[in-house]
Design brief:
Rossmann fold; single chain; alpha/beta; seven-stranded mixed beta sheet; three-stranded mixed beta sheet
């Protein structure tokens, strides 16, 4: 079965650079930690085929799994997940000689909770860097909340504001299907998004006034802290298309101040770049 390689734009390449840069710092810190020694793992829940095609050059570029495998010192384990059978097969193809890598084909919402997260328990002196990078509202809040409650996970998270605006946060709420509202609740965790996304006042046509992206993002950032239990959640980095429209926000969340400091520095370096 042949993999379909994803074509990625400038900001996706920036995201890969951000995650790669933090993964290198994270592994360096965790690998040299003593008293107690810590066992660190890498988790990629929407791993893709392992490589992408650059929209700007047409050439293959390493995806997040390949970047993680090149980090030194290496992670102790790598858990790579994709729903697509062809992409999972591609992952197996370039990792088959590495016994530290396990590839999963299936829904990451189940695989993470049942098989992967139990390998990163705080009480076992294990820690994990987890990349949750769905293209849309395909991720369960239960996964996000569990990662926060575990106290052992550093997380990068794609907040797909474009999918939300296009399908669930419509100006006219009567146009939002039951299915699309359910997708939003699945990702957000409850229906509080409805009161957050819309003002109690109405416009001249009688529609509730939709709040700007920033208000929705700020509310989710607070949710990562207060509900999921992450201690540190720096302001996320907006990722835009060629006309500067926001496609998604890249969140980071951790229990460690040093992790927060590192990511704030990395975000600052990349935030004002333009493709």
């Amino acid at each position: 079965m042949r993999a379909t390689y994803d074509e990625v734009g400038y900001w996706s390449e920036v995201k890969l650079d951000i995650v790669r840069e933090y993964a290198a710092a994270y592994s360096q810190i965790l690998a040299t930690r003593t008293n107690p020694s810590l066992y660190h793992i890498y988790i990629d829940a929407f791993a893709g085929a392992g490589v992408h095609i650059s929209r700007s050059t047409g050439e293959f570029i390493p995806g997040s799994p390949q970047n993680a495998l090149l980090v030194t010192p290496p992670f102790r384990e790598y858990h790579l997940i994709d729903l697509d059978a062809g992409k999972a097969e591609s992952l197996r193809g370039f990792t088959s000689d590495n016994p530290a890598v396990k590839v999963y084909e299936g829904d990451c919402n189940h695989i993470l909770l049942k098989e992967v997260f139990p390998r990163a328990l705080y009480a076992d002196f294990k820690r994990a860097l987890c990349l949750l990078d769905p293209y849309g509202l395909h991720l369960s809040w239960e996964v996000i909340r569990t990662a926060g409650q575990m106290q052992s996970v550093d997380m990068f998270l794609n907040f797909p504001i474009h999918d939300m605006n296009r399908n669930a946060l419509r100006h006219d709420q009567t146009l939002v299907s039951v299915e699309q509202a359910a997708r939003m609740t699945f990702y957000w965790g409850d229906e509080s998004w409805k009161s957050i996304a819309y003002d109690t006042t109405t416009d001249m046509f009688g529609y509730p006034i939709k709040q700007p992206n920033e208000a929705i993002v700020d509310a989710f950032r607070a949710r990562l802290k207060k509900v999921a239990g992450f201690k540190f959640v720096p302001p996320p980095m907006p990722m835009r298309n060629s006309v500067n429209a926001e496609l998604y926000y890249l969140f980071f969340a951790s229990q460690q101040k040093v992790a927060d400091d590192i990511v704030r520095s990395i975000f600052h370096k990349y935030r004002d770049r333009r493709g």
